[in-house]
Write a structure and sequence with these properties.
about 325 residues, about 65% helix, about 10% strand, three-stranded mixed beta sheet
Length: about 325
């Protein structure tokens, strides 16, 4: 009998859905607090929560699409959609900061009384505590899965926590001192903080669009190959590695002894691919091209015995992102 049970959602998709549900609930709480108090600072917090809802919705879609396996039209997978989601989230954050300035600037010079301030602060504190828990959860899941979308969403949620904390301090001072102009000032400062977070997200997503090099990933690969190097692995060059969402693409040239039989060379290529696959994950796309050595490589070759050797080995290549990325002649 055919199994009609739907497949379980991944931890990434479940985290994104949780983020969306919490964002909707907290938006409602903050709007109630704003309606109760008329506070510009609370309104600034609520405006960011509107962006949280939209961003969390995009996160659900992009994380789900990013998990789709490669197909004929997208042979490298669908992971780059996460960069688009992060870019859009960053732009929405910048838009929210503009709205905050627009609503708050005038209240610095023309402050208005705020009724029910104590109850509004209490709602704000409760919302901030829930957001702190959610933001840390999203960041942890994003690091585990390598998901840029969840990481971006987690950072955005935490900026909401910082916003709520700043608003809480401001309203506490207003409540204690009666300085109503602090409400508008803190709201504007919140806008600056939100704008800074938005610029960072846009910058990171553009790096993904431009397939910018990832020094940390390249160093991780070089360190792994240095630690597990075999004598027949004379040198490597043309090393490139990129991330597309959670999927990693790696390609390089591996220099092997030129008298090595084809089946033996294939075995070494497979061994290096398996090594990288074990570290980078089963979804990593790895392509290794085998090059034959030339006489110029004898001084760095540890293969022994070798009937073709012209010079004794005097050094071992140190594989780093800088030395392995430059094209080299193999003969």
């Amino acid at each position: 009998m055919r199994d009609t049970t739907p497949p379980k959602s991944s931890p990434e998709v479940r985290a994104a859905r949780l983020s969306l549900g919490v964002a909707v609930a907290l938006l409602a709480v903050k709007m109630v607090a704003w309606l109760m108090t008329g506070s510009a600072a609370i309104l600034s917090d609520a405006l960011e929560s509107i962006i949280n809802v939209v961003a969390a919705g995009f996160a659900v879609v992009s994380v789900s699409v990013a998990e789709t396996p490669p197909d004929e039209r997208h042979p490298y997978g669908h992971g780059n959609i996460e960069y688009y989601a992060a870019w859009l989230e960053g732009m929405l954050i910048l838009l929210a900061s503009i709205g905050i300035f627009y609503e708050s600037w005038d209240k610095i010079f023309h402050p208005e009384p705020m009724p029910n301030l104590g109850a509004g602060i209490a709602l704000l504190v409760a919302a901030g505590g829930v957001n702190l828990w959610l933001g840390l959860k999203l960041l942890r899941q994003g690091r585990v899965s390598g998901s840029l979308t969840l990481t971006a969403d987690g950072k955005h949620v935490l900026t909401d926590v910082y916003t709520s904390a700043g608003v809480f301090v401001a309203l506490g001072l207003v409540w204690a001192t009666g300085w109503l102009w602090l409400d508008g000032l803190i709201a504007c400062l919140v806008g600056v903080n939100i704008a800074w977070a938005g610029v960072g997200l846009v910058r990171r997503s553009v790096s993904g669009f431009m397939i910018e090099s990832d020094p940390a990933l390249l160093e991780e690969i070089c360190a792994l190959l240095r630690e597990n190097r075999q004598p027949a692995w004379i040198d490597i060059h043309r090393l490139r590695a990129i991330k597309a969402g959670r999927r990693v693409h790696v390609d390089m040239h591996l220099i092997l002894p030129r008298d090595m039989p084809l089946h033996e060379a294939h075995r070494h290529v497979d061994a290096m691919e398996s090594l990288l696959q074990a570290r980078l994950g089963p979804e990593a796309d790895i392509m290794i091209h085998a090059d034959p050595c030339g006489e110029s490589r004898c001084s760095v070759c540890e293969a022994d015995p070798c009937d073709l050797r012209g010079d004794a080995a005097t050094a071992t290549p140190v594989w780093t992102p800088r030395t392995t990325g430059e094209p080299k002649k193999s003969a």
